[in-house]
Specification:
The complex is a heterodimer of chains A (326) and B (740).
Chain A (H helix, E strand, L loop, with lengths): L4 E4 L3 H10 L3 E4 L5 H6 L7 E4 L8 E3 L5 E4 L4 H6 L1 H6 L1 H9 L3 H6 L2 H5 L6 H4 L42 H7 L3 E6 L2 E6 L22 E7 L8 E6 L10 E10 L2 E10 L6 E2 L1 H7 L6 H12 L11 H15 L2
Helix pairs in contact in A: 5-9, 10-11, 11-12
Chain B lengths: L23 H6 L14 E7 L5 E7 L1 H4 L4 E5 L34 E2 L5 E7 L2 H10 L1 E6 L6 H4 L4 E2 L10 E3 L2 H6 L3 E9 L11 E7 L2 E6 L4 H11 L7 E4 L15 H13 L3 E4 L2 H7 L6 E9 L5 E13 L20 E11 L12 H19 L3 H7 L11 E2 L4 H12 L11 E3 L2 E13 L7 E6 L4 E4 L9 H13 L6 E4 L16 H26 L8 H7 L4 E6 L4 H21 E2 L1 E13 L5 E11 L6 H20 L31 E5 L22 H13 L15
Parallel strand pairs in B: 1-13, 11-12, 15-16, 17-24, 21-22, 26-27
Antiparallel strand pairs in B: 1-5, 2-4, 2-6, 3-5, 7-16, 8-16, 9-14, 10-11, 10-13, 14-15, 18-19, 19-25, 20-21, 20-23, 25-26
């Protein structure tokens, strides 16, 4: 593990300022991913700025009725919070589907958004990886193992999945990421936060170099009370998703009035299923509608022999999850 | 000394009782010292650098960035490593030569033989510094053509030779012709992937030189082999090498051989003059210790309309490394399980530029039984016959291959008992006919079988006048409860209270014990303890006669009446002509007995699975294993052993797969996040029942419990998955994509 300097920040201003004036520094939240990546010789920060003392660990309802989750709220705390459990059950379920109890006790919600892919080849410095070393090539696309890889949002440079469960629920919920930097505050809709790999797979978010995530805001969204997260994986627990579905459904007289759908395990970033949603809106809340919507979403998937199963698996899982919400 | 000072408690019944582990307290409180827990003053830490190509010559190693790091004591490469003796050529005539994990003389060569081979070692003040320095080393290779893809190489597989320790090919009658003319037949192909042991304790060595003498704390399954191997490689007199392995944090076969880490820890200690601890990272375990070979198998069965087998063909292809490997006896159980008129079993091997494959829990039977038992289920289905009934119709009275006697065979009883307890009759035979909401429900059975072995064990047994008994033997405790079992065996043999018995083990300064392998340790050490107890009693009787004491008095009474503080007996000799004689006796007994008997533990595995009808996720929801392991020494630890085997079998059935990149030969999931062993939520309550009758040909009647538990598990699950879904998955692991 490479040496680094460790400093702590006590205020947001302090953190942002230290970051801007310290070369090759990174913010340190729960460290559940970053420290692993430093150990694995993938991230090489010279300085870590510990931000866990910043007063950003509350979950609260704000005046608009929206719920604001401080960026340093631990995953366990967010999942257990009554506001989340009652208004956004999909988010509680998504967080609890990820990692282990110990990891969730450490991991922060801001950090969760920034976790990096678990692609085998990204983690093995002996393998070429465009995400880790720009322009080096991609061992997965060059005949490697691709069973875990993405089928949506891929590019010729990278097909690695985004590993977060939480972010998939946030995508379905139209969450907004709040940030702060020397240039001031920003509100980034979750859909604009993560980027597809395209020609620059190493650049994963629209976050500025020194920008600090301060909170995640969940808008008022009544349909979210009828929501569910379904994660399909290779063992009962402690595995990344092959396919996951975050869904919220509102119906009136057998017709769908509001549907939110996002997918994990299949996309290079948390995948908001807009195509499926447009099929669902106004249609009868039946299994055949759900299947049609799911198939429409997956129709643009780019499949490889190893991961081709993800398309039918996603269709089945979406259909089953939406059916369970009727 | 008066008689009252001698314990006169009535000895309790000890054999078979579920006695708590004698080392339970030290293990659960963390007081037990494993190989990495010996904190010598001045202890340095070592980290390995692994090759990143499958076959090459090293043209340059740039260590400057590592050398300059504060806290680094040595960077050892093939340029500056001390010269070692090469590993010996493995031969059955000298069993300790089998210790070498591979034939590579680490850091004594510029050649790379597999992707992951250690090419440098860094020694530093802390593990963090050592690992950082290791990451800074840049190695340049001249790459050479390599063969790394199992599938591509399969056509080049060659017949595997049989050996005294590994049954392989053989035939009876003309199975090919019989298959053709059979009323009903199946002819199926199966595959199983590479697997790794994943003991919770990664291989760890602490090496200390004291002048010319070497002490090594090493988590090993074979202290004596490790000691002899180190003496040979470092050109030391045997007496100058001591190997201590008091506690081993799981092994499952993975610590049978001496792998690179052990050798290189000793090298690092020699170069730096400091005690060195080398604890492999989890990745390091995958890269430098051999796992289970992948296999492809064919099972073809022919039967008459009544379900009597007329043909049984089982063939396999497995891999070896060009630098060595274990010839996995995949078809072994197919010589013993079913009464087919015609049998053909064959094994082939291919050679890859990979690390040597090793032994892993029930090598052969674990994966061979998957194919055989799944094929039997398919045949039963074809015959419209209950799968247990098909097995019973083909249950042989004598070994099907050659008519040898079974020393004991409890399979009929195991199936009868299991079927009743599992309520097997409640199932509807039709696939996909049982449902619970979205879950498709299925049940399956398979046969477990594992040969029984006895290896030489030397012990000393010492009785003190205060009634304490000390048994000393260099056997191994890797979690199975060995010390507890031998405490019970000793108390039983001498009819003394359990708490008067103390056992010393896990140290090469003790009489040489057997390796912990082949499920043989309990039988092997028990035999020596029984022999020692008989000797001790005989000596005491003589002593009693000489002192006019009744030979019926408590042993300690006899001693004290004779004015003796203690009496010690020894079984077996550790060196010289006595040791040689012991080895010859072992081999001749082995061969004589194997000519006469087939000795094996067996059992019936019953399971229920649920398969999600939308996603294909498989959950095992019920398990019952009924086993014939001969005498049960400790009901609790034996059940735990069998249960552990079943848990490992669930892993093999549903998740475990070491992925090897077909271009680079590099293991891509060298970690426990992506190599899927079962989590708690994957394992149901597991019921275990042992028939408990002794095997008349084995010491104490013990057949061994370490491996038979894993056998048949994958087959039973595959059969239950078929019953639930109507789908046959013949390629392990049974992941959900194969069920969509």
């Amino acid at each position: 593990m490479r040496r680094f300097t460790y400093v702590t920040a006590n205020t947001v201003t302090d953190a942002v300022k230290t970051k801007a004036t310290t070369p090759n520094a990174k913010y340190l939240g729960g460290g559940t991913n970053l420290v692993d990546l430093i150990r694995a010789d993938i991230e090489h920060p010279d300085t870590l700025i510990d931000i866990t003392r910043l007063p950003l660990a509350d979950v609260e309802e704000i005046s608009t009725g929206a719920v604001r989750i401080g960026a340093l709220t631990r995953n366990s705390h967010a999942a257990a919070h009554p506001l989340i459990r009652t208004r956004y059950p999909v988010l509680t379920q998504a967080i609890l589907a990820g990692a282990s109890g110990q990891l969730r006790n450490m991991a922060t919600v801001g950090g969760n958004l920034l976790q990096r892919t678990r692609c085998h080849y990204f983690y093995d410095t002996a393998a070429p990886c465009n995400k880790r070393s720009p322009g080096e090539g991609c061992a997965a696309l060059n005949g490697g193992y691709t069973r875990n890889h993405a089928v949506l949002g891929t590019s010729r440079n990278c097909i690695a999945t985004h590993p977060s469960d939480m972010a998939v629920a946030l995508a379905a919920l139209d969450a907004v990421v709040e940030t702060e930097s020397a240039e001031g505050n920003r509100r980034i809709p979750i859909e604009d936060f993560h980027k597809p790999p395209g020609e620059t797979p190493y650049s994963e978010t629209t976050l500025g170099e020194n920008e600090l995530i301060t909170a995640i805001e969940l808008p008022v969204l009544p349909p979210a009370r009828n929501s569910r997260y379904r994660k399909v994986r290779d063992r009962s627990s402690y595995a990344f998703a092959l396919v996951s579905v975050a869904a919220a459904l509102e119906t009136e007289n057998g017709r769908i009035t509001n549907a939110r759908l996002a997918l994990g395990g299949v996309g290079t970033h948390p995948w908001r299923a807009r195509t499926a949603e447009s099929v669902l809106k106004g249609a009868p809340a039946t299994e055949s509608t759900f299947r049609e919507a799911a198939e429409a979403e997956l129709s643009t998937a780019t499949l490889l022999p190893d991961n081709a199963f993800k398309a039918p698996l996603a269709v089945r899982t979406i259909t089953a999850t939406l059916t369970s919400l009727t | 000394m008066t008689q009252t000072s001698i314990p006169t408690r009535t000895p309790q019944r000890v054999l078979g009782e579920p006695i708590d582990r004698v080392d339970g307290h030290v293990k659960t409180t963390g007081a037990a010292q494993y190989s990495g827990d010996h904190l010598y003053p001045d202890l340095a830490h070592a980290a390995l650098v692994h090759a990143t190509v499958p076959r090459a010559r090293i043209t340059h190693i740039d260590t400057t960035a590592a050398d300059s790091l504060p806290g680094v004591h040595a960077v050892i490469t093939h340029h500056n490593a001390p010269r070692l003796q090469p590993p010996p050529k493995p031969t059955l005539l000298n069993l300790p030569t089998l210790a070498a994990g591979t034939s590579v003389n680490y850091l004594n060569t510029d050649e790379v033989h597999w992707n992951g081979q250690p090419v440098a070692v860094v020694v530093a003040d802390s593990l963090d510094i050592a690992r950082e320095a290791a990451q800074r080393i840049r190695v340049t290779y001249e790459e050479l053509p390599a063969t790394v893809d199992f599938e591509q190489e399969e056509p080049n597989a060659v017949p595997q030779k049989n050996s005294a320790l590994s049954d392989g090919g053989g035939k009876k009658g003309d199975a090919v012709a019989a298959l053709k003319s059979a009323d009903v037949s199946v002819d199926l192909r199966f595959s199983t992937p590479m697997q790794h042991h994943n003991a919770i304790e990664p291989h760890t060595t602490t090496a200390v030189w004291n002048g010319k003498a070497l002490t090594v704390h090493d988590g090993t399954q074979h202290i004596d082999w490790t000691r002899r191997h180190l003496a040979l490689r470092f050109k030391l007199p045997l007496n100058d090498v001591r190997v201590i392995s008091t506690f081993v944090g799981g092994a499952f076969g993975g610590k049978t051989n001496v792998w690179a880490g052990t050798i290189l820890a000793v090298v690092a200690a020699k170069v730096t003059g400091r005690p060195v601890k080398l604890a492999l990272s989890r990745e390091g375990v995958y890269r430098t210790t051999g796992g289970r070979t992948p296999s492809t198998q064919r099972v073809a069965l022919g039967a008459d309309a009544d379900g009597q087998l007329t043909a049984l063909i089982h063939t396999s292809v497995t891999q070896m490394g060009r630098v060595g490997g274990y010839a996995e006896q995949v078809v072994s159980q197919s010589r013993h399980l079913y009464d087919a008129e015609n049998i053909l079993v064959q094994q082939h091997q291919l050679t890859l530029d990979s690390i040597a494959n090793g032994v892993m829990r029930a090598p052969g039977e674990s994966i061979g039984s998957f194919a055989l038992e799944a094929a039997m289920d398919e045949l039963a289905h074809r015959l419209d016959l209950d799968p247990i009934e098909l097995r019973m119709r083909n249950e042989p009275d004598r070994n099907p291959m050659d008519g040898k006697l079974f020393a004991r065979r409890g399979l009929r009883e195991a199936y009868a008992r299991g079927a009743e307890r599992f309520r097997w009759a409640d199932r509807t035979p039709e696939p996909r006919s049982m449902r619970d909401g979205r879950w498709l429900v299925g049940t399956g059975v398979a046969t477990a079988f594992h040969p029984a072995w006895v290896f030489p064990a030397n012990v000393t047994m010492r009785l003190s006048a205060d009634g304490d008994v000390l048994v000393r033997c260099g056997f191994h405790e890797m979690g199975m409860g060995a010390a507890t079992a031998f405490t019970q065996v000793t108390a039983h043999a001498l009819r003394v209270p359990l708490d008067s018995v103390r056992i010393e083990y896990g140290d090469s300064d003790l009489p040489i014990g057997p390796g912990a392998g082949g499920s043989a340790q309990t039988a092997s050490v028990s035999r020596a303890i029984l022999d020692a107890a008989a000797k001790l009693k005989k000596d005491l009787a003589a002593l009693a006669r000489r002192n006019n004491t009744s030979p019926d008095e408590a042993p300690a009474t006899i001693l004290s009446r004779a004015g003796r503080t203690h009496h010690e007996v020894a079984v077996g000799a550790d060196r010289g002509i006595g040791r040689l004689a012991g080895q010859v006796r072992f081999m001749s007994t082995l061969l004589r007995e194997r000519r006469k008997y087939v000795k094996a533990a067996c059992g019936a595995q019953f399971c229920e699975v649920r398969v999600d009808s939308d996603t294909g996720e498989v959950r095992v929801t019920r398990w019952l294993g009924v086993f014939d392991i001969g005498t049960v020494v400790n009901a609790k630890t034996a059940a735990s052993q069998l249960r552990g085997g079943i848990v490992m079998g669930i892993g093999a059935a549903l998740g475990e797969e070491t992925l090897v990149d077909g271009h680079t030969g590099r293991i891509v999931n060298a970690n426990l996040a992506e190599y899927h062993v079962p989590v708690h939520a994957d394992v149901p309550r597991i019921d275990i029942e042992c028939l408990g009758d002794p095997d008349p040909t084995m010491p104490l009647g013990v057949l061994g419990a370490g491996e038979v538990g894993i056998v048949g598990v994958a087959g039973a699950i595959a059969n239950a998955v078929h019953h639930a879904t109507g789908l046959r998955v013949r390629d392990l692991p049974i992941t959900l994509d194969k069920l969509l």
